[in-house]
Amino acid sequence: MRWSTMHIPTLRDDPAEAGAPSHRLLLRAGYIRQLMAGHYSLLPLAVRVRLKVIGIIREELNRIGAQEILMPVMHPAELWQLSGRWQLMGDEMFRLKDRKGAQLALGMTHEEIVTSLAAELNSYRDLPQMWYQFQTKLRDEPRPKAGLMRTREFTMKDSYSFDLDIAGLDKSFDAHHAAYSRAFTRIGIPAIPVEASNGSMGGSGSTEFICPSPTGEDDIVYSPECGYAANMEAAVSALAPVDPATDAARSLDEPQRFDTPGVRTIEDLATGYDAPADRQVKTLVYVLDGRLTLVLLRGDHALEEQKLIDATRAVAVRPAEAGEIFAELGAHPGSLGAVGVTTLPVIADLALRGRSGMTTGANTDDVHLRGVDVDRDIEVSEWADLRAAEAGEPCARCGNPLTVLKGIEVGHIFKLGYKYTDAFEITVSGPDGKPVKPAMGCYGIGVERAMAACIEVHHDEKGIVWPAAIAPFEAVVIVAQQNDAAVAEAGERAYQALLDAGVDVIIDDRSDRAGVKFSDAELVGIPFRITIGKRGLATNTAELTERATGETVSVPLDDLAKHVR
Ligand code: ATP
Ligand code: MG
Ligand code: MG
Ligand code: MG
């Protein structure tokens, strides 16, 4: 490739709209351009990096025996209705109608679609299966952010596993865990696997891969010595009613809207719980102007199906009064079920420390309690860990220090169990001829987010510092004096020799000053710079500069390939 003919529109100055380093550098170094909020075009350099990231992930998945497939982006509503997620996904799902009036969804994930494919698995001998794809996902994110980090349109590598039993699922899950760890290492992302919960995916357990970075949106509680890490997303992803002061106190004649992914309206809060609707009790807790606010929501049969939940009480209290409220809640188990007895103080504590949350409890005969913040359950133990970390106390598991880190969720693997095979009535015939329901797992990596995360951890004041494995080019040959025929010719020879040696190389054959070429190469982040100039030519040498260290050595011209590998 030749710089002179490639489209690499580097910018002289930092773009004003970009805060996160990856966002700023991807724009400035000519990798991406925004079409509209949350939608970016990838320019030639970005496409090269993306393909390398995809190549690494693909290799690691093939290695564990996963098979690549490709499913459509556009889905019929019926499949999503079958799983119950047509409702649950709320405003995050893009929906449209075709000319015949058929309801369609744009895929934000593919569990429903892949499960429909699994209907053709017949026998236990067909299992296990692991299928994956690289496919565009569309999510109407409430706040697209930080360039490629959080977009409304992105490539996900998503895999799905089908196993005969839970032991098999555990194996597929572990295989993905290992593949993800290898892939992230190769991509140059120091991802930490952390315990997380399943959110709208359903199922029994999940692990997120978090790249530590101050620009991340997730908090994790982490003890390297204990090998323990847990996500505190629950605690920080704030449940923020649009206008708590007025909306919360008002009875809900019209759907109340929440500025939180996955929870759009009061109706959404009602979905997904197994208690009879009239027995469901939900409590929202948040802090407004330093006051703790509780909104108690009660199911009500008198209302039509879709509007089951009515706000029955909103209380704003000073933190000091919170204890009394909880005592009151706990003292009325008949009307409030188990809500508040254990979970509410947890949520309230988080809320009081500026981390809003929501708790949901369903008052059924066998009391069923969970603390949910939008996406996931809050584990009381994680809350205890956060408190310990903030108080400087050691991890209860091993007595070592705990820290709270910010990070970027680059991957997420789930044990789904039977949620989808149940809903879609998928069975295979077992060894004894009886039908067996396969156990399912799903596994995701955000490809462009991984690129952005990699930049967050690999950059300096001059620009991006790509790891060689995913750099758009491994090396750049810089012709210092393009208008000197001998130098230009030596540059060409070096370029061809590197190409012949299999090096992914670009030649900067522009007529610009060497200084301009140097700073562009640094901004773009190419790992090795080979400078061919008059001075070196006199001794048949070139200068080889490593981007990461800035170290320069003099290398014989016919020996270049050896030094960039
Ligand atoms: P987040 O918590 O950041 O919204 P998520 O939990 O909704 O992510 P998953 O449904 O677990 O995401 O999807 C798997 C992976 O897809 C994530 O780990 C992340 O790498 C990537 N991803 C999710 N949403 C986005 C997005 N809006 N833009 C870019 N990548 C994304
Ligand atoms: Mg999300
Ligand atoms: Mg998440
Ligand atoms: Mg996730």
From TrEMBL:
UniProt-listed GO biological process terms: prolyl-tRNA aminoacylation
EC number(s) stated in the UniProt entry for this protein: 6.1.1.15
Keywords: Aminoacyl-tRNA synthetase, ATP-binding, Cytoplasm, Ligase, Nucleotide-binding, Protein biosynthesis
Record domain Aminoacyl-transfer RNA synthetases class-II family profile: where: 33-467
Location of this chain's protein in the cell: Cytoplasm
Catalytic activity: tRNA(Pro) + L-proline + ATP = L-prolyl-tRNA(Pro) + AMP + diphosphate
Keyword Heme: no
InterPro entries (UniProt xref): aa-tRNA-synt_IIb (IPR002314), aa-tRNA-synth_II (IPR006195), aa-tRNA-synth_II/BPL/LPL (IPR045864), Anticodon-bd (IPR004154), Anticodon-bd_dom_sf (IPR036621), Pro-tRNA-ligase_IIa (IPR002316), Pro-tRNA-synth_IIa_bac-type (IPR004500), Pro-tRNA-Synthase_IIa_type1 (IPR023717)
Superkingdom of the source species: Bacteria
GO cellular component, one term: cytosol
Keyword Aminoacyl-tRNA synthetase: yes
Pfam families with a match to the protein in the record: HGTP_anticodon, tRNA-synt_2b, tRNA_edit
One example GO MF annotation: aminoacyl-tRNA deacylase activity
CDD domains referenced in this protein's UniProt entry, alphabetically: ProRS-INS (cd04334), ProRS_anticodon_short (cd00861)
HAMAP family: Pro_tRNA_synth_type1 (MF_01569)
Function noted in UniProt: Catalyzes the attachment of proline to tRNA(Pro) in a two-step reaction: proline is first activated by ATP to form Pro-AMP and then transferred to the acceptor end of tRNA(Pro). As ProRS can inadvertently accommodate and process non-cognate amino acids such as alanine and cysteine, to avoid such errors it has two additional distinct editing activities against alanine. One activity is designated as 'pretransfer' editing and involves the tRNA(Pro)-independent hydrolysis of activated Ala-AMP.
Oligomer status and interactors: Homodimer.
Domains (record comment): Consists of three domains: the N-terminal catalytic domain, the editing domain and the C-terminal anticodon-binding domain.
Family per similarity comment: Belongs to the class-II aminoacyl-tRNA synthetase family. ProS type 1 subfamily.
Name this polypeptide is given: Proline--tRNA ligase
Phylogenetic placement of the source organism: Bacteria, Bacillati, Actinomycetota, Actinomycetes, Streptosporangiales
